[in-house]
Amino acid sequence: MSWPLPPTTRRLVGWLFLIAGFLLLLGVGLRLGVVYYEYQQLGSAALNSTRLILSLMMLVAAMLMLRYGWRERRGNDTVD
To answer: What is the spatial distance between Cα 66 and Cα 58, in angstroms, rounded to a whole number?
Structure first.
């Protein structure tokens, strides 16, 4: 694939990253809501550090996807 991408392809890639980032953010939010509900019901025994670290990593990935998608849509240089 040639670099840089044509403007129409960049906009499409930007939209796809924005949609994927938003859906991942929504999923992580729902997952953290379930973890919080379990914590309220069962106390600290319901917390699992692996699950929380994985959720935080997915949250960071969602924010990076949103950032990349937004920069692609606006036509900014995404190579940092």
So the answer is: 12
Mean pLDDT in residue range 19-31: 95
Q: Is 32 exposed, middle or buried, given 0-12, 13-18 or 19+ CB atoms closer than 10 A?
A: middle
Q: What is the DSSP letter of 44?
A: G
Rounded Cα–Cα distance for residues 4 and 19 (Å): 22
Other Cβ atoms less than 10 A from the Cβ of 19: the count is: 13
Residue 2 has pLDDT above 80, yes or no: no
Where are the domains positioned within the chain? Answer: 7-72
DSSP state, 14? H
pTM of the model: 0.80
Distance of CA 67 to the CA centre of its chain: 9
